[in-house]
Design brief:
heterodimer; A: alpha/beta; Rossmann fold; Arc Repressor Mutant, subunit A; 5-stranded parallel sheet; 4-stranded antiparallel sheet; 8 helices; about 40% helix; elongated; B: alpha+beta; Beta-Lactamase; Helix Hairpins; Heat Shock Protein 90; 5-stranded antiparallel sheet; 5-stranded mixed sheet
């Protein structure tokens, strides 16, 4: 079970984030201020530290700086209410893995946490699999084929990319923002419901003819590909 | 503290205007008064000296005449006595008759008193002024002429007069003049200060007037009062600045009240949904439903906040642009790929024509165009068309999004790009943030361009984003 350090001074946010992370199968240590966060980061064996930037006592940047000076290489993800480019650059310059601006969807945080955990556990040389299977659905990225049972599912390139994204992260809820970014390279929050439409179309091809539904909507959060009982 | 004060005092740029004007005025008066007094004094000296020289020359010539007259009649030794008798009347004048080698052959009776005045060398026909070293208050003028025939070859006559009186007059005059000049300069300084203060009174008045303006009185203007012509420009510029300030201030206060209002409804929805659900025990599905509603409202709030942050940064020019050459056609295709699904769903033809290349921040450009396309798709009925077009036109690249949808009534057009402005007030609670077009305008302006709309109800709308090519380079 991955062990994560969460340094967050707002009790509500800390409680929800740690609950969410625990429910996603992680062990979470919570520190309510900067000095305690630094102490736990230096003494505990964490696979990831999630640091709020604005903290009482010692801010997130200082924690990261001190930890790196002490040769602690725990990956760090910053949470912040400020999204000035300078702030972002500063965080990444100090060696942070990622940067998330509040307010964010929890699914977004979870997705990024998983990316970082995967990256650090697999190492850079890891080979991404090219075949994925979920129940009777199988996806071959090289041959660009999707099948359910014996039937071939006929998908447009974008639908295929969408399905590939969802199956690679099967069981993880993908937000609309992430989907728009990963599939269409449209990285912004728009007022449109293009993603909904795309999901609906994918669903008519993928799920509608079959009894076992795989593509589920988590209302208000995003979409997930999984087998539900 | 005190050294800083001294430094400030030494820095001429910090001197008060009154101080400067006073200084300039005093300096000008001093130059004039000193010049005039100097000239007058020099003229007086000249006149007095001329008078003295004339007198001395006359005296010597009288002596020469007497000498010539006596020498004609008698031998030198015999007329000496007789000549001395002529000398009694002279108080200020003494003379000496000299042989060619400078030995005194004869002298007036008072010559010893004039020893200092007659000492020293003087050429024939020249004047020499000297001062008595024993009695520094005495001044002499000396002159020498050839003595003429009868007095021996090469003999000369030299005379001196006492000019102490005149020198005293000159000294007194100089003292008085100095006092008067000093007084005049002091008076001029005082007057200069008074005049400068009086002259700068409008400046103090204008600053007092400006000082009275505060946030509540931004609509007051100062230029319509009677100001000196020099200050008129200042008053006008100040009024201009005030007008701009007032506009931004009004905009800001309208914006913050809009903001509060816009935030109120989603927050209201959140609280209402949660409290109604908590009102009594419910099925799990109902809780889930409420939470979903809350997340959706929260997402809308969050989108609103990030759009507002974007607008605020763009306003302060803090938004950094990452300009790179962008092909309009490629950008259009990408957008069609994204929005095509939705257009197809609504049976709307989404097309792109034309090609132009421009320097732009691709992410921002994409964001602006997709806001326009999303709007167009939203307001176009089934079977309609939404068209993107790129063209270059007199020094600008124009990217337009047009539709043949419902169109917009003319009274809305001027406000369309305002934050939170909604054509249909009742739709404020739908999932739009009311900031889409404001963001579009902001993005166009960040690129040094502009955005415009033309529309007629029932005939569709057309939004043009204009990117001037002239501002394409320096922005980079």
């Amino acid at each position: 079970m991955p062990r994560i350090l969460l340094v967050e001074d707002q009790p509500t946010a800390a409680a929800y984030l740690s609950q969410g992370l625990r429910e996603a199968g992680m062990t979470v240590d919570v520190a309510p201020d900067g000095p305690d966060g630094l102490r736990q980061l230096l003494t505990g064996q964490h696979e990831l530290a999630i640091l709020d930037v604005m903290l009482p006592g010692l801010d997130g940047w200082n924690i990261l700086e001190t930890a790196r000076r002490a040769h602690n290489c725990t990956p760090v993800l910053f949470l912040t209410a400020r999204d000035d480019v300078e702030d972002r650059v500063r965080g990444l310059d100090l060696g942070a893995e990622d940067y998330l601006v509040k307010p964010f969807a929890f699914s977004e945080l979870l997705a990024r946490v998983r990316v970082i955990l995967r990256r650090s556990s697999a190492g850079p040389a890891a080979i991404e699999p090219t075949r994925f299977e979920l129940a009777d659905l199988s996806l071959d990225l090289v041959r660009h084929r999707a099948t359910r049972g014996d039937d071939r599912v006929d998908l447009t390139p974008k639908e295929f990319a969408l399905l590939a994204l969802l199956i690679k992260r099967a069981g993880e809820v993908q937000s609309r923002t992430v989907i728009a970014d990963q599939v269409w390279d449209m990285n912004f929050d728009s007022d449109t419901n293009v993603v909904e439409v795309a999901i609906r179309r994918l669903r008519t091809k993928l799920d509608d003819p079959y009894p076992v539904k795989l593509l589920h909507t988590v209302r208000g959060v995003g979409y997930v590909l999984e087998v539900r009982a | 503290m005190s050294s800083k004060f001294v430094l400030e005092l030494l820095d001429a740029r910090r001197w008060s205007l009154t101080g400067r004007l006073t200084l300039f005025f005093a300096a000008a008066v001093a130059v004039i008064v000193l010049g005039v007094s100097g000239m007058m004094y020099a003229e007086l000296v000249h006149q007095l000296h001329e008078k003295e020289e004339l007198e001395l020359r006359d005296d010597l010539h009288i002596q020469l005449d007497v000498l010539a007259y006596l020498a004609k009649r008698e031998r030198l030794t015999q007329w000496q006595h007789e000549w001395r008798e002529h000398q009694e009347e002279y108080q200020r004048f003494a003379w000496q008759l000299l042989t060619p080698d400078g030995v005194v052959r004869l002298a007036s009776a008072n010559a010893p008193e004039f020893a200092e005045g007659l000492a020293g060398h003087v050429g024939i026909g020249h004047f020499v002024r000297s001062r008595d070293e024993a009695d520094p208050a005495r001044y002499f003028l000396m002159y020498r002429v050839a003595a003429g025939p009868g007095t021996g070859t090469g003999a000369t006559l030299r005379g001196a007069i006492d000019v102490t009186q005149d020198e005293r007059v000159l000294q007194r005059y100089l003292r008085k003049l100095a006092v008067v000049v000093a007084l005049a300069i002091c008076l001029a300084t005082a007057m200069g200060w008074w005049l400068a203060r009086r002259g700068l009174a409008p400046l103090r008045a204008i600053s007092a007037e400006i000082g009275r303006i505060n946030a509540e009185k931004l609509n007051s203007r100062i230029a319509n009062e009677a100001w000196p012509s020099d200050l008129r420009q200042l008053a006008l510029s100040f009024d201009d600045m005030l007008a701009r300030l007032q506009r931004s201030f009004d905009q800001l206060s309208r914006f913050s009240s809009d903001l509060a209002h816009e935030f109120r409804s989603p927050i209201n929805n959140l609280v209402a949904a949660a409290s109604v659900t908590l009102g009594r025990a419910r099925e799990v599905a109902e809780y889930q439903n409420t939470l979903e509603v809350m997340v959706e409202e929260g997402n809308r709030l969050s989108r609103m906040v990030s759009s507002m942050l974007f607008l605020a940064r763009a306003d302060n020019a803090k938004q950094t642009l990452h300009l790179e050459p962008v092909s309009a056609q490629a950008e259009f295709h990408r957008l069609i790929e994204f929005f095509g699904i939705m257009a197809e769903e609504q049976q709307i033809t989404l097309s792109a024509t034309g090609e132009a290349s421009l320097n732009a921040d691709p992410l921002l450009l994409r964001r602006a165009l997709s806001n326009l396309i999303a709007n167009a798709l939203h307001h176009t009925a089934r079977g309609g068309t939404v068209a993107m077009q790129a063209r270059a036109e007199d020094g600008a690249v124009i990217l337009s999004v047009s539709d043949n949808g419902a169109g917009i009534a003319p009274e809305h057009l001027p406000h369309l790009f305002d934050r939170f402005y909604r054509v249909d007030a009742a739709r404020s609670s739908s999932d739009s943030t009311g900031l889409g077009l404001a963001v579009v305008r902001s993005i166009a302006e960040l690129h040094g361009g502009s955005v415009s709309v033309s529309s007629a109800p029932g005939q569709g709308s057309r939004f043009d984003m204009r990117f001037p090519l002239s501002t394409q380079r320096w922005r980079n």
